[in-house]
User: Fold this.
Amino acid sequence: MAESRRQPDRKSRLHKTDLEYKFVGKFIVLDGPDGCGKSTQARLFAEWLDRQGIATLQLRDPGDTVIGEQIRGILLRPEHVVMDTRTELLLYMAARAQLWAEKMGPALADGKCVVLDRWLSSTCAYQGYAGEFGMDKVIRIAEDCLERVWPDLTIILDVNLETASRRLKRELDRMEQKGDGYHEKVRQGFLELARLREGFFVVDASGDIETVHKRVLDVIVQWGSA
Ligand code: TMP
Assistant:
């Protein structure tokens, strides 16, 4: 989504000060297993913020810089089947460091609300938990590599394997091709991380797009009011 600051509608104007207080300069992540619908939900949430008149920047991790998109290509190309978990981990971290330097850091400093499609929570669940590198070790590396490790809020969109595979009706990339055992562990990794960390909320991502969008907004608005 392009950077934006639209005029809020009348209803939102009434709450503009509250909402600005809640979301200005905040870093919010939507994450979860492949097929959970997080890209669609991140877009809908960013559009909702936009309608409230809050300057928003929506990004995907890995990607959204020239370097990050090239790293993404290396990571996801199905023919790179021999890639080691450690290589994956370092490439995801490299793309993230670049995204921070070029886009996220400046946007947050500018008071924008930055909405991310995936972040470190994915590295914890995929490489740390499913790839058995260890979530603690992933976090230690992140602490050394990243300017900022944890978002203000992370929404984990939880979905079972059956629903997720039904939604992935296209050619699968290298990570998506890793098989059911791996992806079941990815799901457990996300749930484990959400149990362990502050600022994580799990949302049931089964159901249609609008239903899940409402569940996401309920959690976010409640979080903002705390
Ligand atoms: P995406 O298509 O949802 O943007 O994500 C690309 C793939 O990369 C997806 O299968 C999840 C995986 N991934 C990791 O394994 N580790 C990470 O740190 C991230 C951000 C994504």
Observations:
- Residues 34, 60-62, 92, 118, 122-123, 126-127, 175-176 surround thymidine-5'-phosphate (CB under 6 Å).
- The longest strand covers residues 153-158.
